[in-house]
Amino acid sequence: MSTLPVSRPPRLMGILNITPDSFSDGGRYLEPEAAVARALRMLEEGADILDIGGESTRPGSAPVPPEEQQRRVLDVIRVLRERLPQGVPLSIDTTWASVARAALAAGADWINDTSAGLDDPGMLPLAAEQHAPIVLMHRSGTPQTMQQAPSYADVVGEVRDHLAARAEAALAAGVRECDILLDPGIGFGKTQAHNLALLAGLGRLVELGLPVLLGTSRKGFLGALCGHVAPHERVAATCATTALGVMQGVAVFRVHDVAANRQAADVAWAISGFSTGV
């Protein structure tokens, strides 16, 4: 298994959705050849990790059975494992332990679980058994319900407490501390105000001492802020959040548009290092 990169500079996780219904690129990479070509392109553009998913988790999306998720992703993972340079991690984006296990056997290295191990009680023990890095994300409700009037008294504090609790659950299940990443779940059961508060408060999550992953790429709240532009027109807006995250200590950024976000991350990282005297 690949060891978890926790040191700076920040890493980019390229998104590969092998789905017909993802909000931004659904249907574009259903054919294995197209998916592999897209993955290799993102690697050329500066991706450090590739995140492969066979189920959309956009608001309102329907669950995809684990057997169908495996049908969509396993062949792509096998081909990429053969063709990628040594040491490039592949991540499986799923909340099902059976899908994660099959993906790890096919050549994946990481698990990206949008339920933080709550949907399937077998997920955390699997990560522990396989010594697999796992992303634990905050999500309020399910994709079907999460945007139905989400409410928090203190969104940053509540998300922080939830992630801390899920990290403790992972540790109790035997996951190594060095294999845990935390994701605030931008857009997953949050209003625009909640998303903005979380972005402004990323430093409070970083203070937990575990690497933070940020996923804002092309999301709807960015489109609303920029005049309700379409997903593919939200690249610059995404880059703004990447630069902001770098300055607050975020370790990994999950993005569609790798080349642009690579530039944003590298410039912000250079400024951050200069300002601290590095």
Automatic annotation (TrEMBL):
Q: Which GO terms describe its molecular function?
A: dihydropteroate synthase activity; metal ion binding
CC terms in the record's Gene Ontology section = cytosol
Which segments constitute the Pterin-binding domain?
10-266
Pathway annotation = Cofactor biosynthesis; tetrahydrofolate biosynthesis; 7,8-dihydrofolate from 2-amino-4-hydroxy-6-hydroxymethyl-7,8-dihydropteridine diphosphate and 4-aminobenzoate: step 1/2
- Sorted alphabetically, which keywords does the UniProt record give? Folate biosynthesis, Magnesium, Metal-binding, Transferase
**UniProt-listed Enzyme Commission number(s):** 2.5.1.15
Which Pfam families does this chain map to?
A: Pterin_bind
Q: Which GO terms describe its biological process?
A: folic acid biosynthetic process; tetrahydrofolate biosynthetic process
Q: Which PROSITE patterns match?
A: DHPS_1 (PS00792), DHPS_2 (PS00793), PTERIN_BINDING (PS50972)
Entry annotated with the keyword Magnesium: yes
Q: Which Gene3D superfamilies match?
A: Dihydropteroate synthase-like
Reactions performed catalytically: (7,8-dihydropterin-6-yl)methyl diphosphate + 4-aminobenzoate = 7,8-dihydropteroate + diphosphate
Under InterPro entries, the record lists: DHP_synth-like, DHP_synth_dom, Dihydropteroate_synth-like_sf, Pterin-binding_dom
Q: Which cofactor does it need?
A: Mg(2+)
General function of this protein: Catalyzes the condensation of para-aminobenzoate (pABA) with 6-hydroxymethyl-7,8-dihydropterin diphosphate (DHPt-PP) to form 7,8-dihydropteroate (H2Pte), the immediate precursor of folate derivatives.
User: Do you know which NCBIfam families this protein is assigned to?
Assistant: DHPS (TIGR01496)
Assigned protein family:
Belongs to the DHPS family.
Protein name per UniProt: Dihydropteroate synthase
Which organism is this entry from? Allochromatium palmeri
Encoded by which gene?
A: folP
